Structures are given as C-alpha cells and as structure tokens.
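Q: Structure for this?
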Amino acid sequence: MKVSLLDPKGAYEPRPLPLSEALARDLGLSVIVDAMADGDDEIREAAWRCLLAVPPSLTAIVHRQATVQEALANPGLVRDLHAIALEAVEGERRLFPASRSPQSVLFRSREAMTLFLDALRKLRDRLSREPAFVSPGFSRLWEEARRDLDDDFFQRARAELEAIDRRELRFFARLGRGLKPEPFGLIAPEAPTLWQRLFPRNRDLVYRLDPRDEAGARMLSDLAAAGLFPLARVLSEAVGQVLAFFRALRFETAFLLGARNLAKAFSEAGAPIAFPELRPPKARALAFRSLLDPLLLLKTGGGVVGNTLSANGARLCVVTGANRGGKTTFLRSLGLAQLLANAGLFVPAEHLAISLAPAVFSHFRREEVKGGGRLDDELARLAGIVDQVVAGSLLLMNESFASTYEHEGAALALEVVSALTEAGVRVVFVTHLREFALSVAERGGEGLCLLHAEVGPDGRRTFRMREGLEVEGHARSVFERIFGPSKDAVDDI
Amino acid sequence: MSWPSLLFPKPQAPTWPIPEQTLRDLRLDLVVEALGKGYEAYDLEPLYRQPLTDVRAIAFRQGVARGLLAPGLREAAWAYVRGVEEARALLLRGEKCGDRHAGAAWFALAATRLLEALEALGGGVSSAPNPALAALGAYAARHLEAVRRSLGPAAALLEALSGVRFELSVRGDQLAVGQAVPRRDLGLAIRETFARFQGGAPGAVEAPRRGEDLNHVESAIIERVARLHPDLFSRLHGFRSENEGFLRPEYHAVARELLFYLRYLDLTEGRVRSFPEFDAWGGVWLSGVYELALSLEMPGGVVANDVLLEPEKSALVITGPNHGGKTTLARAIGQVFVLGQLGLPVPASRARIPLVDGVFTVFERGERGDSPSSRLEAELLELHRVLTAASASSLVILNEVFSSTPYRDALELGREIDRRLSQRGVRSVWVTFLDPLSRLPRAVSLVGEVDPQDPSVRTYRFARRDADGKAHAMALARKYGLTYEAIRRRLG
C-alpha cells in the first residue's frame, strides 16, 4: 500500500532545493508558510519541505494539482484522514520501546501491528463513506484500501498474531557448522487431537536446566532468539511499512490542510486563485495576467497592483527603472509564483502559464556585508550557485555586482549571464547597471525580455512593469521633469 | 621419494646473507615485513634474506615465478595454501571445542578441506609449463590417490549431518528435542499475510551472537539429536578414529615454499616488474626503475628512472636538489640487485645487471653521536669495514657520506674513498652534494631535475648530465625577483 496524493510514484519525499535558505529569506517565503500553517507546526513543517523542493516531474505536479483541487473541495475528508494517521503514528510511538533482541522486537511489533489493524480498518471505513473520488490521488488510495484491507485479511492477521505463544516456542531445527543447532522457523501451535493424546507419535527428549544455571538460561534465550529472528524481521518490516504509510499519509494530508488554509487567506484578501498551466522546463513558458505578489497580498490584506506579462521563451529578463518602482516586488512575485507552481499549488492571479523549474536560486544584494569584502562575498555566493545550477533552473538576480565599479560590474554580469543563459538557465535580473542593460539590448536576439518599472508623466510610480528598456534612471526623469527634455542629455547615453 | 623443492634445486645453493642494517637502508625491511605479515606461522622472512649467488639457482627460481604468473596457476597454488591453512585451523577448533560430537564434525570438515587443497595442487599445478611446478603437481596427484581412499567419506558424512532435521521446544527452563514431523510454519503464514506490507525497512533486530563452539545447553541438544540418529553419529566417530594425524608436516613445508613466490607476486601485482638478465659483461642497465617500498606506500604511482652504467664506468654519482628523490633512486638500484638474486622479478621495466657477491650500504645516519668529529669517525670506521669486505663483484651504495664535514675536507675524503674503491674494482653508487665527484673519468653523473616553470617543484626525474648545483638556486632567485638585474632595477 502506498500513499500517492502528492506524487503518483508513491510516498512523497521532498528533495530539498539547493541553497534554499537564502532563497526563502530573499523571497520572504515564511509569510506564505505562516499562512499555510495557521498556527499548526506540523503543517508548517510540511509546507516548508514541499515549497522548497525540487519538483519530481511535470506529470507528478499535474497529478498533485488535482489532489489539491479535491482537497480544497472536500476539507472534511482531509481532516479525518489526517486525524486517523496522526493517531496511528502517535499510538505506535507511545508503545514500550523495544531492545534489539528478536523477542523484544517481535512482541513489540505484535502490539504495534494490532494497533495499526484498528487504524487501517478506520481508514477503510472512512474512505468507503465517500460516494466518489475525482482526483487520481484519492481514487488510488481508496482502490488500494479496498484491495488490501478486506475483512479476510483483518481476520487472518489477528488470528496469526495471537498464535505467537510467549510461553512455549517450538521451532523447526537443523545442524549448522560444527553441529551448531539452528532453529529456523516457528511451528504453529496445534491442539492435539484425541487420537494424538491417546497415542503420542513420539516422545520428546527433555532437558531441564538447573535452576541456578543462569548462564544456561541465557543460552536458552539466545536459542529462542535465533529461532524468532526471521519472524521478528518479517513482522517488524511489516510494522515499518505500515508506519511509513501512516507517516506519509500524515505528512501529505498536512500539506493539503496547508493548501486549504492558504486558499482561504488569499480569498480573504480578495485575490483570485489560479492553478498554473504547467509546461516543461525546456518550453521556458512565462505568461500571466494580474499576478499579485503573494507576500504583499498576505501582509496588506488587499489593494495590491497586479502585473501582466507575456514572456514565453524568454531566457533572460532584464528589469530596469526607477528606485522604489516595484522591481524587487515584481522579482519576488515571480520567484514565489514559481515555487507555488513547482509545489502543485495555486497563485494569486487571473492566469499563469509557467515552466516547472528544477531549481530556483536567488542572488540578492546583501546589505549586511560591509566594505571591500562585498564583491568577494557576491562572487563567492554566485560561485556556489553556479556549482549547483542545472538547465531549466530559474535564477533571480537583484542588483548583483552593484558593489563594484559599474564597467567592472557590467562586464562581470555580461560574462556570467551569457554563460548561464546559454547553458539553459532562465535569468531574471533586476539591475541598475546601465552598461550591462545596454549591451544586452544591443545584442538582442530571441529569448530576451526587457522590462522597466513604469513611472507616470508626473514621476509617480505605478508599480507596473512595462516592456522596453528604461536606462535613464530616475535621476534623469527628475531632471527632465524639472528642466524639460534635453537633447544633450540624450546624446550622452 | 619426497616432495620436490621449489626454492633449491640442489640442497646447498650458495647464498649471501644480508645484514639487517643494509635491508633497512634499502627499505627492504618494510617489504620483507609486508611479505611476512599475516603468515607468521610460515616464517617466510628468512627466505627473503638470502639472495643466491649461483646463476643456475636464480634461473631455477625465475622459472618457478614465471610459471606462477601463467593464468590460473597462482589461483591453484593459493587454493592449496588456503586449504591446508583451513584444514589446520579446523582441526584445532575441533580439538578445542569441548564437545565430542562437534569435535568429530570439525575433524570431518578439516578432512574435506585438505582433499580440496591437494586436488588444487594435483590438478591445477601439475599442468604447469614450468618443470619444477609440474613435478610438484604430479607428486601431489599421486599422493592424493592414497589420501582420497581414507578421507573420501568425510563429504558424505557432512552432507548427512546437514540434512538432519528435528524439533526444538523452549518452555521456561525446559528444553525438548523431538523427531521432525510435518507441521505448519507460523512464520511463513505471517510472512504471507503481511506480504502486502513488505518493502519497508526492518526494525533494528539483532540476531543473537552465538559463538561457533557449542555451549553446554547446545551440547545437551546435540547429545539428544545423536540419540535420535545413532547410526550417523557412530559413523562420524569411526571416521575420526581411523584418520587421526592426517595433516602431515610436509604439507606445511610445501605451502611455505609456494608462499615465498605467491606473497611477492601478489604484493607487486599491478606494478611494473621484470626478471633481470644476469650478464657477466659487467654494466648496469635499468629501465624504469623505482623504489618498491615507496610504491607500496603511494597507490597513485611513483616516478621511475633509467640508469645506465657502462662496463668501463664504475661509479654512479647522483646529485641534485634536496628532497629530489636522490636517496630513493639509490635504494631502488640496490633493491634490484637483492630482489633479482632472490630469483624474483624486480621493480623495473627492464634490467640487465651483473651478479654480485654482496650489496654494502653506508648511509648518513643521524644517531651517530653528537659532535661532527665523532660522526665522521663512525662514518670512516664503517667505510673502512665496507672497503675491507667488498670485492670486485660487490656493489657499494654511499648515501650522503661526509655531509657533516666541511666541504673542502669532504671533497678530499670523497676522492680518496673513490680512489680506493676503483683500485679494488668495486662498483659504487653515490648520493652526494660533492659535485666534482661526478666529473671523475670513471663516473656517470645523474642530476635530479626540477620543473622549468617553477624551480621549487621537484620532478623526481634524473637526467644524465653534468652536475650544476647553481642552476637551481638561480631559478629560485628569479622566481622571487632576487636576481642581480632585478635587484638593480628595483634599487635603480
């Protein structure tokens, strides 16, 4: 039996994104995680792990989207499944701990399995109460429960667990090397028939330990341990498997509960919700209508300006423009949208079509590093990213190389960005490096997307990104606002 | 008729015993130690300390060693050695185990191991192209015929024992042994029922550690099993009493001689090695020679060098920067002579050397007293001893002698020693800081080289050219901008 709510291949084990700590910090991901958790630490943990994970595959995430949609529609089911899984896992944890001896492991496994049989029956009964399932994830859970958890199984399992007799253990035995007696299997106890009682087939040759023979008692127990070892392994393996099943169910339903909480939070802030149209990484899809920055949305509770963009096929997106024009917010909303899409969740937008990214990286300017070490620090971090990056990754750069002379920074940026984009990495670069933006624009070519933060004719920020290059900077727009357009100044560029 | 020897075709082949100090100087003590390690019972080390001085005896051993390099032969020889070893260990275990029945079972197991060992020798080794190996194999094959008649039944006995089935019941402090009858296996039933949950990691279960020997509870069980199978156990004891003492001391002696080759061939496996030609012509010609002990320590490989000392030359003078591999090269040359005369392949891709009656070493040793004068005295005493003992067929290796003596005096002493060596026709290898010695007419000069780009990097390669100690120092000066011109420019 497998849980495959989040990944059709089986229990979802999120593979952590490389360098995700910096990414989470740069994007302010904790705000989203808090909204998902709504005060529940277990959900928080699940949310962190799933949001900062390498997406398993496009089909897996499409599968997960369907599960999330059904979970949003049927929150009661998810809550009940979570409660059953929680009870089973916690119940097992509270059992007396086993030592490593086969006897101890065997009898503890028997207790645990008895407890799990109850939980499995509850699970089957709860699932059978639903009239139908829509998503493949929930459908499969029900089919497997119906197949594996039939009444006959419960009956046999109970009878066999009870047949393990603590008081008398009788083994099949043979001779090993040097005539070592080797018990190799447990004999099922059978009540003797009347015939057998009257005419015993054979009489055992009995050996009774001296009551003071403590060493002998230990040897006897070792012998029993050797006989019980294979059974202890089998049963503890089964317990391990059922425990893993319930742990997976607990984890995956926790994530789904988090999805439900996030959807509620977005709706309460008045935002629309869209499940992204997912594309493979190679397609380099990126197109959206009224995409809101989830972070700003959750913090302010509404009234956020959305952005619309069609940049399908873009390898490099350079964002320029005035300070405090919404460039960083825009960059962050892209990154968060990518993470939400990668996790099979929804975004606050009217529409989003996006390629999955096998990894997401952020290279943001760090204010806390002072003095001459800044460029060193930047280059070291970038080297760390380059070590981990794979084709199809999304790299978000925010004012990189601003800590050195512009021509130097621009040259570095051009080197790095050309190499990365040619290697198939998608780069979104928010920058003030005029030299760099101009070089990129002059070079042109397909897959280039130039954006700038819009500034109204009155110098007011609209917080919208517009296509085209805006390299004059805000200083020039202030200048022009006061002095009027100047031919000389244009020639300077 | 006795077992043929693989080491000495005739009982008394002449040898020259190597002093322990010489082995240490050449770092062959490490090699010998590695060869003997784990095989102390065979006392192999003395075999590696007696190089032969008879060309025919050396050729005989080279033939055996070459034979063992043929495919399958080394494996067969090892199978014999391991089989004898195991048989001995099993016999010992049977004697010590403290249980009559188990002792007899160990005894039978030992007998099967010995048969397998003799089969490996009689079968695999008798087909060797080398006559000495083939003779040994043929002898073993004849011997095996007789042994098989007496030890043959062991295998059937062991098989019957492993087929014995019984029931064992544990209830409180009571244990019971019963005849095996058809029963339902509860473990199997549980495995089937829970098969749908398989594939998980099993919990941390530890099988109890039960010693190999029977404890008294297990002895009690076997005693009862024996009562259930009286015929089988009486045949087992009968086998033992008929075959006491089947492991003969000769088997061990044969294994020892095989191990002399096997250990060395295994230790040098995967490294360049070759059988030297011994040539009365008198020169020393080594291609790709390397220090064996060092190569054992460096899995990544070591640098190999070529050495040529023509017959009309008698001294090889090695100079060059410190830590450039000079002593290592001198050792490698010495090793070729010792290992070659043991009849073993040597650490070189090709070697043609004269037969020597001894290798003598005088190495600079730190422990020779504190003051330079006492050090010089000890050095000269040792040199005197060596000069007295060495003959025209000896090789003398001098490593950094007079290094604690003032240059001018050291040079004078060096020339004097060289003159005396050449008067007696002794061939010598010098590792020295005394460049002028390399320009003597009878000397061949080898110089340790450095990386031309970075003179602080040693290549451990040696070139045959005139010694020039200053070149290295000049290159280092340039690297740090300390040449004459550089300093003038800076100060100009």
